[in-house]
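Per reviewer request, we include the raw input and output of the structure prediction for the construct analysed in the revised manuscript.
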Amino acid sequence: MGSCRNQDRRDFISKILVVSAGVMGIVSAGYSGNGYRGGGGSGSGTTATLTSEQKDWLLYMYQEEKVARDVYITLGKAYPSENTFANIQNSEQNHMNACKNLCVKYGVSIAGINESIVGQFILPNLQELYNTCVAEGQKSLLDAVKIGELIEITDINDLQKASIGMPSDVVNVFNNLMQGSYNHLAAFQSRIRALS
């Protein structure tokens, strides 16, 4: 039974990594930005022009932060005595706000995104990620906090990738989000140790 459970976990980790890598498919799926192309630098008082790929990253990170918030809201309802989800979901809302502000600043269309609807996403691979995380997390409380750990690891990795070549203001925001994600990761890992 233990080996079967370990295989399930490996399969799930592989799925998360595939979904995370799927950001490059956003352009072909029709969710690209407004098509501006240009350099990644930013001068004083001016807004840099981002490439379509960079705009896709901004949209992707905005939606990925919503995945984290929405999974924690949903699992928090499933396990109301587990305060970790309630504490971190508020921070994830702040992460969403930061990414949304970058989308607005750089002209990335966020039409169709309704933050008030938990569990709904415009990017199909992130919809799948949300659905899978919730299904796995509802198996047990330990599974739920392990999902939190995996989400934070994924978020850190994607923020690092998304920062490459970005203007300094975007890099600064993403670095701040990464620091928050490291804090969240530590909280989930502490709960995993306590529950294991």
